[in-house]
């Protein structure tokens, strides 16, 4: 009874705004920041319950709207594993976020607690992080009040962080490891240095120019590079020079528009450049090919290219280990958005490729089925997962092989990669360090890396429709099952183009249907995209 009173009382502080319908969607709630206090408060309650359900393990609550505009904000939950909130709990998240009165809220919670047999006595623990958005401060207070309104639960403000830092810290905490932000940095520094130390022929490395999207990632990178030699990074768009978060900058902008972010131009022709998104869970690389292109078009190295580089490096180490290394099931997970040329490339390397629905939680799940599973979305979100079993095999081999032998070095590299790469979730900081060390290992420039394969020209458009749920796709989103007949019509268009491929899917984050098309020339891809868009209208 006191529990119910507690929630009734705090929920009066956070009335739900009129006329807003929220959905947890692909990766949490997002809306104009001014509308979100009641939502974040309620997600605070959910996080406490999630912690309680899992024996008071630590749960993470992140306040960010990622690559979206600065006036937006959002909230998402990290499960104790460091992965995304279990999808089983998403409907409950939707229900309570939309509950129209304190009474309805309390009754939904009561039913859920009974159904899931959650014991409220012990108290849960929730770690709260936020990105650099100013609206994050008051939203964080709302989250704290939500967490604490579940009696006995504690809220820990872990400050301004990247999304992947919070996921990493939650994962480490629940594994009983050191889990502060400085432990995160320490871990990156140690494993990076280890990989650098294992480079066979070390050349002088060239400068990298980083676009921090005027967000949290650039700031954290500044801290990180203070402790790193062997890498020369110039960071632009830190947000301190008056730039606005995600406005004309960042990984999402560069990947979608294929033009340079603000602060980059002719002076950077040929330089190796990279962009983070607003909460630093996405990474893309690019370079400006030549002055003759006007200095604003970029050659993009997207998530698919990063994935290909990682796959190549890991495969090389397994080959060095020899027959025993070949037993490792190395696989790749992509989405329908992956450039067809990248899929061909990893298949030719002899790797297994599987497809997942858009959204990190779907890729992550499929990558867990391999000994080493590499997943990436073309937009730059991805990571590498090592199975426990394979990792302990590697650690055992480190003892068997003699120190300094090729096999010992290869095994040590793989162990270091497993520490460097964030296994909770895709992480722009750790991904960047891994790209940098692999390029140094290979002795490659960004241009050389780009030549692994040539992207097929592609085009994306969005179509506004009265009801996007009318479009239903197969589980891999490569084909539309509904509206009836539309897939046949799409296939009819595809047939007209050399290397043509196209699909439609309802967005998980916006009220639109997305169209993707690729073909052998840019003109053909554009034209295929527009004819498919016509079919959707
Ligand atoms: C979310 C997803 C991203 C996905 C995008 C698709 C996470 C952390 N983020 O931003 O991976 O690519 O949604 O958006 O899962 P869409 O459904 O609107 O195309
Ligand atoms: Zn993001």
From TrEMBL:
<feature type="binding site">
    <location>
        <position position="277"/>
    </location>
    <ligand>
        <name>Mg(2+)</name>
    </ligand>
</feature>
<feature type="binding site" description="via phosphate group">
    <location>
        <position position="66"/>
    </location>
    <ligand>
        <name>Mg(2+)</name>
    </ligand>
</feature>
<keyword id="KW-0597">Phosphoprotein</keyword>
<dbReference type="InterPro" id="IPR049022">
    <property type="entry name" value="AMG1_III"/>
</dbReference>
<dbReference type="Pfam" id="PF00408">
    <property type="entry name" value="PGM_PMM_IV"/>
</dbReference>
<feature type="active site" description="Phosphoserine intermediate">
    <location>
        <position position="66"/>
    </location>
</feature>
<dbReference type="GO" id="GO:0005975">
    <property type="term" value="P:carbohydrate metabolic process"/>
</dbReference>
<feature type="domain" description="Phosphoacetylglucosamine mutase AMG1">
    <location>
        <begin position="179"/>
        <end position="284"/>
    </location>
</feature>
<dbReference type="GO" id="GO:0006048">
    <property type="term" value="P:UDP-N-acetylglucosamine biosynthetic process"/>
</dbReference>
<dbReference type="Pfam" id="PF02878">
    <property type="entry name" value="PGM_PMM_I"/>
</dbReference>
<feature type="binding site">
    <location>
        <begin position="377"/>
        <end position="379"/>
    </location>
    <ligand>
        <name>substrate</name>
    </ligand>
</feature>
<comment type="pathway">
    <text>Nucleotide-sugar biosynthesis; UDP-N-acetyl-alpha-D-glucosamine biosynthesis; N-acetyl-alpha-D-glucosamine 1-phosphate from alpha-D-glucosamine 6-phosphate (route I): step 2/2.</text>
</comment>
<feature type="binding site">
    <location>
        <position position="279"/>
    </location>
    <ligand>
        <name>Mg(2+)</name>
    </ligand>
</feature>
<feature type="domain" description="Alpha-D-phosphohexomutase alpha/beta/alpha">
    <location>
        <begin position="57"/>
        <end position="90"/>
    </location>
</feature>
<dbReference type="InterPro" id="IPR005843">
    <property type="entry name" value="A-D-PHexomutase_C"/>
</dbReference>
<dbReference type="InterPro" id="IPR049023">
    <property type="entry name" value="AMG1_II"/>
</dbReference>
<feature type="domain" description="Alpha-D-phosphohexomutase alpha/beta/alpha">
    <location>
        <begin position="115"/>
        <end position="174"/>
    </location>
</feature>
<feature type="binding site">
    <location>
        <position position="514"/>
    </location>
    <ligand>
        <name>substrate</name>
    </ligand>
</feature>
<dbReference type="InterPro" id="IPR016657">
    <property type="entry name" value="PAGM"/>
</dbReference>
<feature type="binding site">
    <location>
        <position position="281"/>
    </location>
    <ligand>
        <name>Mg(2+)</name>
    </ligand>
</feature>
<dbReference type="Pfam" id="PF21404">
    <property type="entry name" value="AMG1_III"/>
</dbReference>
<dbReference type="Pfam" id="PF21405">
    <property type="entry name" value="AMG1_II"/>
</dbReference>
<dbReference type="GO" id="GO:0046872">
    <property type="term" value="F:metal ion binding"/>
</dbReference>
<feature type="binding site">
    <location>
        <begin position="505"/>
        <end position="509"/>
    </location>
    <ligand>
        <name>substrate</name>
    </ligand>
</feature>
<comment type="similarity">
    <text>Belongs to the phosphohexose mutase family.</text>
</comment>
<keyword id="KW-0460">Magnesium</keyword>
<comment type="function">
    <text>Interconverts GlcNAc-6-P and GlcNAc-1-P.</text>
</comment>
<feature type="domain" description="Phosphoacetylglucosamine mutase AMG1">
    <location>
        <begin position="302"/>
        <end position="444"/>
    </location>
</feature>
<feature type="domain" description="Alpha-D-phosphohexomutase C-terminal">
    <location>
        <begin position="462"/>
        <end position="534"/>
    </location>
</feature>
<keyword id="KW-0479">Metal-binding</keyword>
<dbReference type="InterPro" id="IPR016055">
    <property type="entry name" value="A-D-PHexomutase_a/b/a-I/II/III"/>
</dbReference>
<protein>
    <recommendedName>
        <fullName>Phosphoacetylglucosamine mutase</fullName>
        <ecNumber>5.4.2.3</ecNumber>
    </recommendedName>
</protein>
<dbReference type="InterPro" id="IPR036900">
    <property type="entry name" value="A-D-PHexomutase_C_sf"/>
</dbReference>
<dbReference type="InterPro" id="IPR005844">
    <property type="entry name" value="A-D-PHexomutase_a/b/a-I"/>
</dbReference>
<dbReference type="GO" id="GO:0004610">
    <property type="term" value="F:phosphoacetylglucosamine mutase activity"/>
</dbReference>
<keyword id="KW-0413">Isomerase</keyword>
């Amino acid at each position: 009874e006191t529990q119910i009173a507690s929630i009734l009382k705090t929920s009066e502080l956070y009335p739900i705004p009129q006329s807003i319908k929220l959905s947890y969607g692909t990766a949490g709630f997002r809306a104009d920041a001014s509308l979100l206090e009641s939502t974040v408060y309620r997600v605070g309650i959910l996080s406490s319950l999630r912690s309680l359900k899992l024996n008071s393990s630590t749960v993470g609550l992140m306040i960010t709207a990622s690559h979206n505009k600065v006036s937006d904000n959002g909230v998402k939950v990290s499960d104790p594993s460091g992965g995304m909130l279990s999808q089983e709990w998403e409907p409950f998240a939707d229900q309570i976020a939309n509950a129209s009165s304190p009474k309805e809220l309390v009754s939904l919670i009561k039913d859920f607690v009974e159904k899931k047999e959650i014991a409220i006595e012990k108290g849960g623990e929730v770690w709260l992080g936020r990105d650099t958005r100013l609206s994050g401060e008051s939203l964080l207070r709302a989250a704290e009040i939500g967490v604490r309104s579940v009696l006995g639960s504690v809220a820990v403000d872990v400050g301004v962080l990247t999304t992947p830092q919070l996921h990493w810290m939650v994962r480490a905490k629940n594994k009983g490891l050191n889990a502060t932000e400085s432990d995160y940095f320490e871990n990156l520094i140690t494993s990076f240095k280890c990989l650098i130390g294992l480079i066979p022929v070390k050349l002088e490395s060239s400068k990298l120019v980083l676009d921090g999207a005027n967000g949290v990632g650039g700031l954290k990178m500044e801290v990180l590079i203070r402790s790193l030699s062997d890498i020369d990074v110039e960071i632009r768009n830190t947000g301190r020079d008056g730039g606005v978060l995600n406005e004309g900058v960042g990984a999402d902008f560069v990947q979608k528009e294929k033009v340079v972010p603000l602060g980059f131009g002719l002076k950077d022709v040929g330089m190796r450049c990279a962009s983070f998104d607003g909460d630093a869970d996405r990474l893309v690389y690019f370079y400006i090919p030549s002055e003759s292109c006007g200095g604003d078009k970029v050659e993009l190295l997207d998530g698919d290219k990063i994935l290909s580089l990682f796959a190549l490096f890991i495969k090389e180490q397994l080959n060095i280990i020899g027959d025993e290394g070949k037993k490792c099931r190395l696989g790749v997970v992509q989405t329908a958005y992956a450039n067809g040329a990248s899929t061909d490339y990893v298949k030719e390397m002899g790797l297994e490729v599987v497809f997942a629905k858009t959204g990190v939680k779907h890729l992550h799940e499929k990558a867990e089925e391999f000994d080493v599973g590499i997943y990436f979305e073309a937009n730059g979100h991805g990571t590498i997962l090592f199975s426990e079993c394979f990792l302990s095999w590697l650690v055992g081999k480190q003892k068997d092989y003699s120190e300094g032998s090729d096999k010992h070095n290869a095994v040590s590299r793989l162990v270091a990669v497993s520490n460097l790469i964030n296994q909770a979730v895709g992480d722009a900081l750790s991904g960047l360090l891994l790209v940098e060390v692999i390029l140094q290992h290979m002795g490659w420039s960004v241009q050389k890396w780009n030549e692994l394969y040539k992207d097929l020209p592609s085009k994306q458009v969005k179509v506004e429709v009265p009801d996007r749920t009318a479009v239903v796709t197969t589980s891999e989103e490569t084909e539309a099952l509904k509206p009836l007949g539309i897939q046949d019509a799409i296939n009819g268009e595809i047939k007209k183009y050399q290397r043509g491929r196209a699909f439609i899917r309802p967005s998980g984050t916006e009220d639109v249907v997305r169209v993707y098309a690729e073909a052998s020339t840019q003109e053909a891809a554009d034209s295929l995209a527009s004819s498919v868009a016509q079919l959707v209208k």
